[in-house]
Amino acid sequence: MDKKKVASDIVDAIGGEQNIVELKHCMTRLRFVLKDESLIKENEIEKIDGVAGTMKKGGQYQVIIGSNVISVYEEIEKQTSSKGPPSVSNDVHPKGNWTIKRILNSLFDFLVGCLTPAIPVVIGFGMLKLVNILIGLAGFKDTSTYNLLDIIGDTGFYFIPLVIAYTASKKLNTDTVLSLIITSVLLHPRLVELMQSGETISFLKVPVYASNYAYSVIPALLATWVLSIVLPRVDKITPGWTKTIFKPLLALMITIPLVLIVFAPLGAMIGSVVSQIFDASRGSLPWLTMMVLTALLPIIIMTGMHHAINPIVFTSLATIGYDNLLLPAMLVTNFAQASASFAVALKSKNKNLKSVASAAAISASIAGITEPALFGVTLRLKRPLIAVMIGSGLAGLLVGILDVKAYVFASPGLISIIQFISPNGMSNFINAVIIVVVSSVLTFILTYVIGFKDLEDNTNSTNNSSENIKLSKAEKYEVQSPMSGDIVRLEDVNDSTFSKKLLGDGIAIHPSEGKVYAPFDGTVQVMFQTGHAIGLKSDAGDELLIHVGLDTVKLDGKGFTPHVDNNAVIQKGDLLLEFDMDMIRAAGFDLITPLIFTNLKDTKMKLEIQAENTVQANTRLLHLVSEKI
Fold this sequence. Notes:
The protein has an 8-stranded antiparallel β-sheet with strand order 15-11-12-13-17-9-8-19, with no helix packed on it. It is an alpha+beta fold and 629 residues long. The two termini are 33 Å apart. α14 runs parallel beside α18 (427-450). Helices cover 51% and strands 14% of the residues.
């Protein structure tokens, strides 16, 4: 993979560097916050070598790369002037309307942003503990080396609150040193001793809930969040010449009592309740719990919600020494994804799909990274995803019966499968190997039997598809106007993305009526959630972006009423969208609507404008004419 070309192609396809507000990455995905998602060239991104798929979630546009994500991220950072996320993009305190959806998205983004950088620490120290398990099984238990390695391995888990305090401070753009110090209070030996003594503890006569905060995650998250709220307010009330002394003093005096009395106990209680819920779900019918979890895990991973379970996994590994929920379920699903991808690679006649599926199978089975398989193969083809879920569910039933446990945090694959070796012997590891075989064989057979609709082989170029060959032979065909209004040259639109034709050639209309109709027969490639833009594809293969107004994405859907969904089949003249012209103008937005044909270079077509100064909806607007080649 040419990481420089992949990085450059991705930036171009998401609307250019100027469209990037923020860029981050997790273990497999690039996470963009964009100014205007309607500028994304979805089809081009999915064709980029090295891109497994895309996803929109929580205000982010996610590009799934897989194991090469860090090198691509670093290359994008080199090629653009974006040097880290703007502070506004890291704010987890929702601005504007406090809708439940917005709050949940912000909280989830906060969790992922704080936990993902901590995972290498947990994996590293977990592998050290695994080395010690192997030393103990070899007969060297209770030696000095064994005891020292036990202390070293335990350090990463005991002090995980400090790691979380660090990552949370970076996510929230607050003072890292103060965050570490405040969290350190929770781990102070005298405080631990006092809380374990059974004595009644109070601060200024306010009772303090006794708990052990070592090995915990949520109290550190809440402590740093409180600091991020307190610190800016302290900064406002302290004069410039006193900030060096009084700003940290006041921040500590306000934050530490709040954390000790309210938020650390709240975090401990939340963690305890969630753990009890998971324990209860496994208590009476563990086989049913694991069957349901493993069957649904591909969907959970697709949304990224598995990260929300990580705090419980961290705590379980640190306190009882193993996890018998998420990691065993991931063992099943990872090998199911690998097996399904391998079956697709064998059965498909599409050279590009064979290559993608083979690479995805290797990534999932060896490294335990399943996003390329999920987004690039099984979800894309749909039927293999059904096979994965059925195969995973059946193998998950066996996981629950055998009570398979993981002793180290890592995404299960051939490299890390030793994470299932127990300090009590090899039976758990043997059960894990049996699970791998069952999951792989079942899913492979199901994928091969259920089958899938193979992709057309377009390996040479887009121009060689039968659809575009027909198009190049056509002399001309008519495109109707999707709305009524005054015609404006694209060059005169007050937005350089459109006026410089960065997305393609076209025309613009000043609408006189708040309705958008289908200009040709075809399909809806994308109806944006905000309703301000529509991507269409004609039956002849032309792709048209209708962007109602400039910067109207900022209205977050207000004033727009879509009448069709993604992938809807449309006929010329169908009503696609209505919009409130008065409301949008009153909000200060320009209603000029660019109509952009985004793939004219591929189809070798050019525009011939037929209408003059004004045009009525559903009447002739232009002709698409084949170039002489």
